[in-house]
Amino acid sequence: MLTKPIPHYFRITLRELPCALLFSFFVCAGMRYRAHGTLFTGHPLTFLALWLLLALAIAAVIALLRIAYKRVFLGHAQGRELLSAAPGDGMPSAERFMRHEAETSGSAKCPAHPERSGCIHHRGRRFDTPLLCALMIFAAWLPYLLLRYPAAIDWDAYHQTAQGLGLEQMTSHWPPFVAFLLGRFAWFGITVFDSVNAGLFLFALAQTLLAVFVLTKSLLLIEALAGKGLSRFFLVLYMLSPLYAGFLTTVVKDALFSILVLWLFIEFVPILLPAATRDVNAAMAGGRMDSAERLVRHGAETTGSAECPAKSERSGTIVCPAKRLRTLAKLAALSFLVCITRNNGLFIVFTLWLGCAWRWLRAGRTSAAPGGRMAPSLHRALTITLAAVMALYMVYLRLWIPSLGIRPGSIKEALSIPFQQSARYMRDYPEDITEEEARLVDTVLDVNRIGELYNPLLSDEVKDTYRESARYLPGYLKAWLSMGLRHPLTYVDATLHNIYGFFDPFSKSRDFPDGVGRGALNTNPALQFTYPPALEKATDALQAFASFLESVPPFALFCNVPLTLWASFYLICECFRRRRARSLALPSAISLLILIASPTWYAGGIRYTLPLVLMLPVLLAALRRGTCGPEGL
Questions:
Q1: Coil, strand, or helix at residue 462?
Q2: How far apart are CA 389 and CA 331, in angstroms?
Q3: Model confidence pLDDT, tens digit, residues 535-551
Q4: Three-state DSSP class for 354?
């Protein structure tokens, strides 16, 4: 029986209805696209009825699951915390933060006894647990690394390696920094081992070790936020899921970028969490200064050692100038690396800058009040630091890169959606375009070919007709707008057909073995990777095993890219429903928008989703019971 009245259940259902409507729309749209190749065909009333019924059913199920979670799992967890907490100590989130800080700092023991200050003993654990997690992940990934020797390499990364070696003209179409890294590793392999294979393998090994390190940090933070159960679940997922083991050991530009995005997000989460200040105030009001100090050192200063000469400010926040400087330097370095490892990394750093600026402005208005939030000094320093990083990146992109003779990238990557819409219009309504519109379109694209080249799932062939004439873009956009006003549904259909595969859980994107196979292109005679024939059967067995894991729960759910994206979208909505947790959702939200604007969902679509997939566990842990608000999940 439900302990709350039925209207409460209906309110929860209505609250979940918008997300359910979006999800069910893409499910129904996927069915229509696979059957007819277009959304606006057949019986619209049938489509509408199926869409609404499916949305209501999904919203009702989610509401039941939320009520069951709060009634059963959350109730038991709160009961255990009340039984285990010291008298008068009501700060489970602070305890989790304190435990995370002590484990990452390497402190020998808890500075106070649990019966006196509420601290949690480590029971002899120091570096053994993080090291054990890292070794377990690396051991599980080792077959993917060794059996695909020298490495699985993506088409983009192959040409980036050639650019880094000077065999091809380097451009900003792919991040020059990644091309430089790949070229240096390949040069080292050729120089020291007389083998380009060795250099490629060393790059894959270095990327794998970095991924293991960052994922281990994420597990520590997940345990600090949500407990051991969730941390152990994601440890098993990290070890065995082909999505992690396959792609994070592959030489592909998205892997390195996604790892750095996760690392940056991990460092920002304790600063953005609104629960940190609330727990500090509660701890200090109850005289729990030891726990409060350790909490603030992690949440406000992201500490790295056990001792720090702390300085109290008016708001009660503990400040460590040396650690603050190191923290700002680390966040600045990570932010800059995110910007230079992928061309759209700047947008993620920009959203974090907005979040810090907003928190600074809000904290400045409330810190003087009794029980106010953290002093605005940290958020002010972060805002200035990230602004400096973005300014430095613009100097790097606009001045330093051109000075090295590196050609700028093409703007056509950002115009995938309008180019697809124009090609679809030319395919369906070639007789409806005026001579003036055709002339304006032809200044940018080949108006006579784009209709024939149109592929609803991939915009590359249409983009390849781009004439690299940015000065004619205003005229093209004028013609694009006038055509769209005549047939708006055509534009909508073309856009949805290009992106629906990311959001329809029944669409079959290219699976793991095909997506990250070991074969390289070897299109350049001067750059040839060779694979040992003796490993061929073992590699086939590994791919078969990965395909098997893709069909086994829970790996099947996390290998289903659309379901993972919907889980991220739902958590983003949860963050925006809670006013104090909105900053946490910004990196995932901007990554989702970037994904929608990507040129394709087919085949390599999984790698486009890596930032969202990697941030999902940490975002889920941050939204667990009581961390970002009284409702929990």
A1: helix
A2: 10
A3: 888 888 888 888 888 88
A4: helix
333 in any annotated domain = no
Whether 89 and 286 have beta carbons less than 8 Å apart is answered as yes
Predicted pLDDT of residue 461: 87
What's the domain range around 472?
A: 411-503
Token reading at 40: 């606006």
- Residues sharing a CB contact under 8 Å with residue 155, sequence separation 6 or more, in sequence order: 521
Q: How far apart are CA 434 and CA 432, in angstroms?
A: 7
The number of folded domains in the chain is 2
Tokens matching residue 381? 């320093």
**Phi and psi for 552 in degrees, rounded to 5?**
-105, 125
Pairwise CA distance, residues 30 & 188, whole Å: 48
Q: What's the token pair of residue 325?
A: 């400087």
Helix (H) or strand (E) holding 355: helix 345-366
pLDDT beyond 50 at 284: no
Instruction: Answer with the one of 84, 105, 134 that is the final residue of a domain.
Output: 84
Please state the rounded mean pLDDT for residues 99-116.
Answer: 44
DSSP state of 273: -
In a domain, 272, yes or no: no
H or E element: which one contains 553?
none
CB 514 within 8 A of CB 183: no
What pTM did the predictor assign? 0.81
Tokens coding 602: 């087919």
Does 301 reside within a domain? no
Which is higher by pLDDT, 307 or 587? 587
Cis peptide before 44 (omega within 30 of 0): no
- C-alpha torsion angle, residues 311, 312, 313, 319 (rounded to 10): 50
**Which residues face 101 on adjacent strands?**
none
In a domain, 426, yes or no: yes
What pLDDT does 38 receive? 85
55, 84, 113: which is the final residue of a domain? 84
Query: How far apart are the C-alpha atoms of 191 and 551, rounded to whole Å?
Result: 44
Task: Indicate the average pLDDT of the chain.
Answer: 78
Among 287, 277, 285, 295, CA closest to 224: 295
Helices (H), 1-154: 6-36, 44-68, 75-84, 92-105, 114-117, 128-146
